[in-house]
Design a protein that fits this description.
CATH superfamily of the largest domain: Response regulator
Structural class: alpha/beta
Helix content: 40-55%
Radius of gyration: 19 Å
Largest sheet: 5 strands, parallel
Strand content: 15-25%
CATH architecture of the largest domain: 3-Layer(aba) Sandwich
Shape: elongated
CATH topology of the largest domain: Rossmann fold
Number of strands: 12
Strand order of the largest sheet: 2-1-3-4-5
Number of domains: 2
Distance between the termini: 14 Å
């Protein structure tokens, strides 16, 4: 998992982002102004920076000018086209405007890290190894046959591990917004994953909501 610096002066938002990223396994450090961000960047190495634009001391654009070779995502209430273009032109990897859903932030973080980290994209869960690049699943080294949709559902659960996801949200993330089936489809595929991969104790049912992958 990645080491991420969160530069956000609104304490509740900073803490919410930090807790959400830590839930899925990232290591996070929080600072609350531009000067503190620069000090922290000089102090240790980070895999990713989440950077607000409107900060005390130095704004996010000024901070970005000092950053070298660290992937950066802007998080800001400044949603104008000119601000987005400026941020991306300066070298930011993504630009997410407030308010945003935490699941969208997690997805954007995952996308940037997949592009920039050099390590292989495998995930180990007990005796199960999931290769996210080749889209293959191995149980004690033996290939497990799964349908593309079963793999996509497992992929969504892994990316949002320890987070309770409603059936509706799982449909959106794993099947796509255009899918017209009902939520019983999610239940059927969850049961198949539990049986094939012996994940009955890992994929938990969240009462009256949906499911959560516990790790």
């Amino acid at each position: 998992m990645a080491t991420i610096l969160i530069v956000e002066d609104e304490i509740p938002i900073n803490e919410l982002i930090k807790r959400s990223l830590q839930l899925v396994g990232h290591r996070c450090i929080s600072v609350f102004d531009g000067k503190a961000a620069i000090t922290e960047i000089e102090r240790q190495t980070y895999d990713l920076i989440l950077l607000d634009v409107m900060l005390p001391e130095l704004d996010g654009f000024q901070v970005l000018e000092t950053i070298r070779n660290i992937p950066t995502i802007f998080l800001t209430a400044r949603s104008s086209l000119s601000d987005r273009v400026k941020g991306l032109t300066m070298g930011a990897d993504d630009y997410l405007t407030k308010p945003f859903e935490m699941l969208e932030l997690l997805a954007r973080v995952d996308a940037v890290l997949r592009r920039t980290l050099k390590d292989s994209h495998c995930y180990q869960l007990d005796n199960i190894r999931i290769d996210l690049d080749s889209r293959q699943i191995f149980d004690n080294g033996q290939l497990v046959e799964c349908t593309p949709q079963e793999f996509e559902l497992l992929n969504v659960l892994i990316k949002n591990r320890n987070i309770a996801l409603s059936r509706e949200k799982l449909l959106q993330l794993a099947w796509g917004y255009a899918y017209e089936g009902d939520t019983r489809t999610v239940d059927v595929h969850i049961q198949k994953l539990r049986k094939k991969l012996r994940l009955e104790e890992r994929i938990k049912t969240v009462y009256k909501l949906g499911y959560r992958l516990e790790v």
